[in-house]
Amino acid sequence: MARVLRSFASVEPFTPGADVRYPRPERLTAPLEVQPARAAKAAESLGLATVGDLLEHLPRDRREARTIAALEPGEVATVVVEVRSITSRPVRRRGMKPLVEATVADETGVMKVTFFNQPWLAGRYPPSTGLMLHGKYEARNRFRVQQHAPTDEAAGGGGVDVAHYPATDGLSSTQILTLVRAHSRGLADTIEPLPARLRVAERLPPRADALWAAHFGEHEAGRRRLAFEELLLLQLALLRRRALRRDSARASGLAAPAELTRAWLADGLPFAPTGDQRAAMAAVDQDLALEKPMQRLLMGEVGSGKTVIALYAMLRAVESGAQAALMAPTETLAEQHFATLQALMPGELVQAALLTGSTPAGRRADLLG
Fold first, then answer.
1. What's the rounded Cα separation, in Å, for the pair 334 and 325?
2. More confident position, 159 or 200
3. Any alpha helices (H) in the chain, and if so which ranges?
4. Is the per-residue pLDDT at 139 higher than 80?
5. CA-CA to 296 of 20 to 30 Å: which in 80, 284, 328, 340?
6. Residue 77 — very low, low, confident or very high, per pLDDT cuts 50/70/90?
7. How many CA atoms lie within 13 A of 198 on its CB side?
8. What range does the domain containing 361 cover?
9. Do strands 61-66 and 76-89 pair parallel, antiparallel, or not at all (unpaired)?
């Protein structure tokens, strides 16, 4: 399935008379038709209800298609072959359906393949049918089939990567690949959510090409484009949620730093703050001056002094007549933070206490009162 990816996006206008094809995304909402009923039920369990669902069902990885001549006994592999002959014969073991055996070939050799408990395949795969088979190659030139599906790939496509999809009982990865191939024209109807200017700046291919590459071409290149889109949309959603929360919430703005924090920085802190710590304190001051809740994430390596910045923000609240709490997910970590705060506040700078889930009720009432 050869295809050359289109060029990267451009912000230049179309030339007069350019052949522009507009996507029709409504086609992607068409119900996905899967046969037989067992496979249709399996597709439903995978969330594959429409053509669009199918084309968004990306491969987990890729497998190299092998040639018959290159197979080793005991090897689990995928091969692309053509049916030479196929028959069904009864099995003496009670409860087993007739066994289907076929002679298949590619440009490198011939072998026998076996399908278990699927007698109808003798009529479905007549001679000259192209098949993609996945299974185990056994001794005496025999192949035990685990997954199968018709294909229009040329037999003997050794070295070609074959997509491997998340699958389930009743609908194999090979069957999903066959469905994707049948509906691949629908990729052109995919809507592009990223503006051309952004795709130019980030050197990203169009979404339709990224999906095509994920299914049939450069698997990782396609996934990278789709991952960028997913992370960008997630960040935009988070920014919108943050903006809505900030616009609807109110807080009391704090005045400029006063005597308490100045005295702590000058005489109480056991060391001089670094340049990065002073920059973080200045950013905290800007946030605390606003009449909106602060929403700031402070990142730094272990030992970089994040607790110093947290204590600075707490002292800013205390010198403005409020209380402050440093929360920790476990009692052990809370005890460690409390000890660190005490070390960073020598003397009786402010009153501080440790409150945990195991604090007695009387002591808790005193602290909160």
1. 11
2. 200
3. 37-45, 51-55, 121-124, 173-182, 196-202, 207-216, 219-248, 259-263, 275-288, 306-319, 331-344, 361-368
4. yes
5. 340
6. confident
7. 10
8. 259-368
9. parallel
- Residue 20: phi and psi, rounded to 5, are -105, 125
**37 and 75, same domain (yes or no):** no
Average pLDDT over residues 340-354: 84
Are 276 and 363 part of one and the same domain?
Answer: yes
Q: Which two tokens stand for residue 230?
A: 């997913």
Of 265, 295, 271, give the one whose Cα is nearest residue 283. 295
Q: Are 263 and 269 in contact (CB under 8 A)?
A: no
For residue 18, the model assigns a pLDDT of: 53
Residue 225 lies in a domain: yes
CA distance 317 to 329: 22
What single-letter DSSP state applies at residue 59?
-
Report pLDDT digits (tens) over 103-116: 999 999 999 999 98
Element (H, E) at 162: strand 161-164
Within a domain: residue 8?
Answer: no
* Residues contacting residue 201 through CB under 8 Å, at least 6 positions apart: none
Burial class (CB within 10 angstroms; exposed 0-12, middle 13-18, buried 19+) of 261: buried
Q: Which amino acid is at 254?
A: L
How many residues are given for the chain? 369
Give the residues across from 316 on adjacent strands: none
Residue 109's beta-bridge partner residues?
Answer: 106
- Tell me whether residue 14 is in a domain: no
Domain count, the chain: 4
